[in-house]
Predict the structure.
Amino acid sequence: MRPFVLLVASVAALGGLLFGYDTGVISGAILFITKDFALPTRLQEFTISVVLLGCIGGAAVSGSIADRIGRRLTLFSAGVIFIVGAFVSALAPNESVLLIGRAIVGVAIGFSSVIAPLYISEVAPADVRGALVSLYQFAITAGILGAYVVDYAFAAGGQWRWMLGLAFVPSLVLVAGMFAMPESPRYLFKTGDDARARDELARIYDNSAQVAAEENSIRDSLRIRAAGWEAFRAPNLRRALFIGIGLAVLQQVTGINTVIYYGPQILKMAGISSNSASILAEALIGTVNCLMTLVAIFFVDRIGRKPLLYAGLAGMFVALSALAYAFAQPHLSGSLSAIAIGSMMLYVGCFAFSLGPIVWILISEIFPLPVRGLGMSISTLSNWVGNFLVSQFFLTMIAKFGTPATFGMYAVLCIATIAFVRTMVPETKRELLERVSLKAA
Ligand code: BGC
């Protein structure tokens, strides 16, 4: 792979780093915000979830914006919105301004969760596309881990403003980086700027035969006369949309963010009583999440998307079943606690090399170029709605149905996801991007 391609993907992946950081950082900051602004429980919850509402809004509009003004400018704008959001949140004189700041940050996350994987997928050569989009997932997990570390570092002084404000640094790098990055060759062909598009393809591929093959397949894809919502009336595009929404929702309803957002609470229920031990265990889970993504980077273009999904989902099923079993016992201590904590690690580790990265890869691959932005927007929007519902109702579900039944339900949904992947999802490894979307559609 050319260093240029890796550079482009790494700059775009900063969008993922900020996604992870800004969703993770609030768990530590909220303790001190609550104290400073004397927040009642309802406002505490809203301070946490307002970011997800912003994400839903940002994801909803960003795809059509990227289809209109280009991928590069849209991701650049996401960086600018991140900067504004970091400042408003960090300097907020009161709770209302803080809520506005967090909503702005949410919009930026929504933008980058659509555009970063889409842009990476469009500049990546076919044989490393999976690895490069997995790099984006790696950045998300690094951002989450970075947020835990920053929260820990500023916790002693209760400096929540620094926790929220530090997102400014990677945002600035994203803005400066995207300023220097090229436009996606696909977008250039779409807008008829063929000469520049060919130049960009020549920077991505080693030889002219590969450039020609890509150009041909892009032209084929552009022959689909489709634009806007109407396009999804066609049965083939409706199917692609069904796959995109299905994968995006299943990534959330199999429960990952219960562990990411409520880790310390679950660990407490699992018998880790001291605060510092539960923070340490949470940091360990964050590390497993980050490191296991490397497995996807290494294997996703070699053995393919579907085998990794099957392996990861099977592991998640086993881990969730063990977790449900441990929580079903009358007293959770000793070896049962160890089983519960080990299961959480196994669960996160398996997600990290399968459903985590591969959903982003697939939804950036299956839509034909004329409606790629829109299709990705709708899928990603569904992902954020799923995230919002699961994280809002996790504690309520535990109170209503009990912990074993809650984790048991996520386990069953892992099996449903295996069935969905088997019946609906095409294998896309090493195929030219537009061939994939034509096949899926
Ligand atoms: C998911 C996020 C999740 C993260 C965990 C991402 O792929 O979309 O909801 O928090 O992975 O690593």
